[in-house]
Amino acid sequence: MKEIDSEELKRIEVDLLSAVDAICRQNGYKYSLYAGTLIGAVRHQGFIPWDDDVDIVLTRPDYDAFIDYCMNNEVPFNLVCSRTEPNYGYLFAKVCAKNTIIQDNVIDIDGVDLGVYIDLWPLDGLGDTRKKAVKTYRSTLFKRELLVAANWRGFHRSKTRPWYVEPVRLAFYIMSRFCSRQKLIASLEKKFRKTPYDTSEYDGVIIGSYLEKEIFRKGEMLDEVIPAKFEDREFFITANYDSILTQVYGDYMQLPPEAKQVSRHSFKAYYTDTEASEEPSAEGEAELSKG
């Protein structure tokens, strides 16, 4: 198999993003680039130089509708989520490039057909007051941390968290060895859907890494989206990007210390077909499917 280098990985991810964008436009699903991808769009007009992640966020109703669409229509990528892969251990979906595969020595992806991917995150309803939103968020925190640890092949030091968090991470890792990922996912998704999105005044990316900083007033994220340059194309970002990024990251325009300018990925990516790099891109196939 031919290994995919960093620049080719990014090209594939942007093609995947174009395919997702086309489906969202066609069906009226609102989305925004999110997390490091949103910072990249605003600060660098593309990827953060040391990063190769792509994350987007949709409301829970649009997220579920997107998954339903992909499961019932021919799409130019592989959709991976808990509904399509029984061994998949995450609470968000991945859109994966066909004819690619990843191998990971840190994260347990055995039995899951994963290729080069981008992540789709749901924005869940949390309640009609800030107090209720925080309570709802905190009620799932323990199980969410347990699920994160359950996906590790073995215990490993974090690339981004301080050293004093390691004993807590180790405790969760040990407990996770006695848990079922599938039962944790079923329990958490049931809890997430218990608070209806449409009647909530607050929403949030419950599965994010920045805890209660990722709780927002409903509508702040996706009521209004605007086009923004990302690499050589345009995608949608929240019109409130400044307030959202400031709330989550603080001074997001300031580069982090050099020691923290590292990719979080622990995998290597490969083509499974030696001719894959010469096939039509996901963007091209999406455009063809639109006629």
Question: Would you give an account of this structure?
Answer:
- Helices cover 36% and strands 19% of the residues.
- The chain is of the alpha+beta class and 291 residues long.
- Strands 2, 3, 4, 5, 7, 8 and 9 form a seven-stranded mixed beta sheet that branches. It has a three-stranded antiparallel beta sheet with strand order 1-12-6, with no helix packed on it.
- The chain is globular, with a radius of gyration of 18 Å.
- The two termini are 34 Å apart.
In short:
By secondary structure, this protein is an alpha+beta fold.
Please give the largest β-sheet: 7 strands, mixed
**Helix-and-strand structural type:** alpha+beta
Number of helices: 9
Number of strands: 12
Strand content: 15-25%
Name the shape in a single word.
globular
Q: Gap between N and C termini, in Å?
A: 34 Å
Unreliable segments (pLDDT under 50, ≥5 consecutive)?
279-291
**Helix-residue proportion:** 25-40%
Radius of gyration: 18 Å
Mean of the pLDDT scores? Answer: 90
Query: What is the ordering of alpha helices and beta strands?
Result: EHEHEHEEEEHHHHEEEEHEH
List the helices and strands and how they pair.
Blueprint: E1 2-3, H1 6-27, E2 32-33, H2 35-44, E3 55-59, H3 60-72, E4 78-80, E5 93-96, E6 100-104, E7 117-127, H4 130-139, H5 141-150, H6 166-176, H7 181-192, E8 202-204, E9 215-217, E10 225-230, E11 233-238, H8 241-249, E12 267-271, H9 282-289
Parallel strand pairs: 3-7
Antiparallel strand pairs: 1-12, 2-3, 4-5, 5-7, 6-12, 7-8, 8-9, 10-11
